[in-house]
Amino acid sequence: MSLGRRSAYAKRGLLAGAALMVLCGAAQAQEALRPAAASPDGLAPGQLYMEADLVIRDDKNKTTTARGDIVVRYQGRTLRAQELVYDEARGLMRARGKTSIVNADGSVEYADEIVLDDQMKAGVATGFAARLPQNVKLAAASAVHRSEKVNELNRAIYTPCEICAPDGTSKSPTWSIKADKVVQDKDRQLVYYRNAVVRILGAPLVFLPIFWHPDPQAERKSGLLTPELSPSNRRGLSYEQPYLFVISPHSDLTLSPQINTKVNPFVNVHYRKRFYSGAVDARFGYTYDKDFDNDGDRFGDLTSRSYILASGAFAINDKWRWGFTAERTSDDLLFDKYEIGGVYESRGPYIADDRRLISQLYLTRESQKSYVSAAAFSIQGLRPGDNERTFPIVAPLIESRWEAPQSIAGGRLRLRASAVALTREQSPVNAPTLRLDGLDSRRATAEADWRTTFTTAGGLRISPYVQGRIDAYSIDDNFAGGVGVASRSDSMTRALGVAGLDVSYPFFKRYNSFTAIVEPIVQLAASPELKQIELGRNAIGDLVYLNEDALTFEFDETNLFRPNKFPGYDLSEDGLRANVGLRGSILWDDGRRATLLVGRSLRNERNEAFGAGSGLRDKASDWIVAASAEPLPGLSLFGRARLDADSLDVARAETGANVSSKWGYGYVRYLRDRSNPNALAGSTKVENLDLGGEVYLTRNWGLSLYGNRDLQQDAWVIRDIGVVYRDDCTRIDFIYRKEDTILGRLGPSESFTIRLTLATLGEPLYGN
User: What is the Cα Rg of the chain in Å?
Assistant: First the structure.
């Protein structure tokens, strides 16, 4: 039968069954019990639907009883029971006999019997069990709803692991938590445990007579976080215990003292605050101690040692943004010695190289057709041999671009403007011990870029373009080279331009199960002769050019078809040149694919602005080859190389593979470089192998591997080997790691790590 608002007795009976969700303290149930504008089961607000074999109303005793296969639906929740009794005189509701509630999210709660007052302020459930989201199972001998603020479970067990074997028989969960009593205090937003035991495969691992943690329903709560215990030959045995202080709904502070047996304690602090327009995230660290070596032997004077890693980003309005980063440390090896993680991360729009810190202040404005930014930053180097006095202070750095909203002469027009000033305290050349003043430079640039595209009926694609640029430079304290040094100060302007077109003509051929594509590509470019900005000559008489923004230039497939292959402004290509290539692809119908690109750059004259090892100095450049393939599901391959123009010897090559399957995953990377990517430097040799992965020998047990080998030095930089156990709710890693000596860094180290990760409990309980 269907009951409306007049069926108050049946409605209260349903609410008695709904008490089961209240008893386990789930916020979802509380939301489900509130009237809604539209019920997911189609009932109108305040209505319910009930089926029962028999409904009895006893007016004398003022009781209503429903018996049989009872099904009650209300606000998207379904109650099933064998008996439902409402005692109006005593104000009690009782549901019993295979009682269960199925919620809209699929979670299910069970109880042998539920008793609840008609105000839903207190109640008891016996034989309580629940299957919640994330496959969590919860059971208790009894669940007591003492008030709207306090819930209690007695003789409770919690696990997200499977408790049934494939044949349907019961089994011990991989891990579980048992406690004599669990109390949820909503006022204090805490959950208390008494006599709790963490069990692994049924065996007790940790016994905690009493402990507490923030209520999962609470947004945030002060308290202890996961500790970290790690043995180290540098610091001895270290124990770090974070504690979270919730300062306000919008800010918190985490204090993490690190206690070491060999060296003095180190304190880490993490502060976060969110404002209406942005947020600040700041990390600090401090200790007062001597320096120490790889074995923990201290030396030198006692002094303060510290670091800061901070950032902030704020919105002024829907277009304007500003922000900052502050990154500094007192010791180059501080992060390594105290094993501080998350250091070399991107915190702002400008990113420093590895093992270098950047502090910056920036302002940006962005719209659909325009962008402008202004910034200033400085860099701290932590590499061996870094001298901060030789690093420039960049202030200001201004960049802007604007695109015309409508086509100009049938094409797209973009305008750009930029300016930068670099100031150095000390020059890195000409006997650094003399501490000569560093080179200072200033540049202002305005440029225009126009391009359009035509495609013929036959498929020929032609894209003409025109680019023009004006640069103005001012240079002070020029000490480049020891022979023919230019004047200490100079100002100059120059005009640059390039005109050309891109031409491509893809050919398609359809076969039975795949499509083949061959596409010749040609880019033509012409620029007037350009005089690079010369600083002087080095000790062997070669010209030294101003080059502040193209120090890490590398010729590969990503810039093969660029009219100006230099990534910055200081150096630029000129003359007549053609970039040519042939790209081929095979696309199978089942998703497999393979691509190959071969190309090179040709010019009418040599360009001495390119370094000897760049592969671009001669009239005919080195060959660029790049390929990728996905021959099988779960397998991908890639390779890229630069081959010498005459001998076809490998100047630089990188190749790798990725594989994944139900048995695990793996990857391998190989890099061989016989030339320095710095366009103005001499050659160096690099050869490196990087590999890693996991493979499972059985359903639960596997091996993990990671290694990084310097093939040039014939030595491993780092290598890991581990044994892994995993199932649906647990992962245990046993990892042996060895790090070899790195020049200018700390010495070699060995460690053994045991890392236990339990599903639904967040971070590992123990890790090295």
Answer: 35
- Locus of tokens 């002087």: 536
Overall pTM surpassing 0.85 (yes/no) = no
Dihedral, CA of residue 520, residue 521, residue 526 and residue 532, to nearest 10? -120
- Residue spans of the chain under pLDDT 70: 1-42, 45-48, 75, 118-122, 132-134, 148, 213-220, 226, 429-434, 479-487, 675-684, 741-745, 759-768
Q: Taking CA 310 as the corner, what is the angle to CA 305 and CA 312, rounded to the nearest 5 degrees?
A: 165
pLDDT in tens, 532-575: 888 877 777 778 888 888 877 889 999 999 999 998 899 999 99
Distances (CA, A) of 53 to 65, 85, 111, 570: 11, 14, 21, 88
List all residues 6 or more positions away from 643 whose beta carbon is below 8 Å from its beta carbon.
Answer: 622, 623, 625, 649, 650, 651
Would you list the domain boundaries of the chain?
Answer: 2-219, 222-386, 691-758
**Is 597 in contact with 583 (CB distance < 8 Å)?**
yes
Beta bridge partners of 242: none
300-341: per-residue pLDDT in tens? 999 999 999 999 999 999 999 999 999 999 999 999 889 898
Nearest residue to 543 via CA among 534, 552, 551: 534
Strand, coil or helix: 9: helix
User: Is 362 within 8 Å of 353 (Cβ atoms)?
Assistant: no
CA-closest candidate to residue 335, choices 380, 376, 390, 301 = 380
Residues near 231 by Cβ (< 8 Å), separated by ≥ 6?
237, 238, 751, 768
Q: How far apart are CA 599 and CA 594, in angstroms?
A: 17
CA 349 vs. chain centroid, Å, equals 16
Alpha carbon distance 35, 32 (integer Å): 8
Complete DSSP assignment for 195-235: EEEEEETTEEEEEEEEEEEE-TTSS---EE---EEEEETTT
